[in-house]
Amino acid sequence: MILLWNPEWGYAKIHRQDGFAAGLCTVTYNQSRVSEARAVVIHFTDVTRELLEWENKTRNPDQFFVFWSVEAPSYLQYYNTKAKWYKDDHFFNWTMTYRRDSDIFAPYLEAGVARDIFSRRLKDTGAAVGVVSIIVYKPNKHIFQLWLVSNCNVLYGSVERMKYVDKLIEAGLPVERFGKCFNNAAEFNDLSLDRLASYKFYLAFENALHCKDYVSEKFWQNGIQSWRVPVVWGARKEDLLRLVPENSFIHADDYETAADLAEYLIYLDNNTTAYTEYFNWFGSNYTTEYLATLYERTAETLLCDKLLAKPEPKIIPSVKENIFSSESEDCLKEKTLYHVRY
Asked: What range(s) does the Fucosyltransferase N-terminal domain occupy (predicted)?
């Protein structure tokens, strides 16, 4: 049994109801069954002094306590200043995050969605089964850039990405912007499916800069899953190349200035052949094999596999210090541009 102490942010996903199966394990949210659980997964929002003190007194030494977060370290740091994330010295055994070096890999891309994405090369194309390389292009795409953003100034990355998009617009790039930052979130929700399908690109700009392996729903859900080419800012390109299909995105770091990037995107808008090359990865055997394997199992199933492998005991001196000390200064910068000492 795996106990998720609480659902992520308090909301259980549709396919994560109490009692769902993860491999050979059963997952529950019932805290009264904590003594039965082989693993207890605790979301970072539940890491309080009261929880740490109570569990330290009652935990079973054979249990594994798992720290769970899919937020960038910069946000964890911001949250810590507000909610007082207390010292977790020698409390957690494993981490479950989006980082590839985490004990349990928990990316933003769900296993079921990944299966759909990486089998798309024979979908919506009218191509015969057995075709190896297919250019996927939706001819109804005629609107340029889409950007949906609600975090304008909470983090250093939030501020910097706003500045960068302003520079793109100043350089002549048409960008349709929606979200709380522009007081038009309701307008976005009212957009028709045809309208949403018409955007060629999505600005997959993260709210964190150069955080290890941090690739969020901005890339996957708003970009790849929606048949748009992601334009990326924030995530390191070397991380992306290990986590997403090659030649599926455009990275801001490849251009000396925002104006150079804007010029290239305008070129792609006027060159259908060059634009559609960003969909050729759908026919790549490497993509379908390597990435499908990387994302084929849910985080809970990977956790179950790890439990069944009879792992050796392990304790993390401090998850907080481990996370913050292993990230770059760019990742942990505050809006005031100084590196926070934790």
From this structure: 1-108
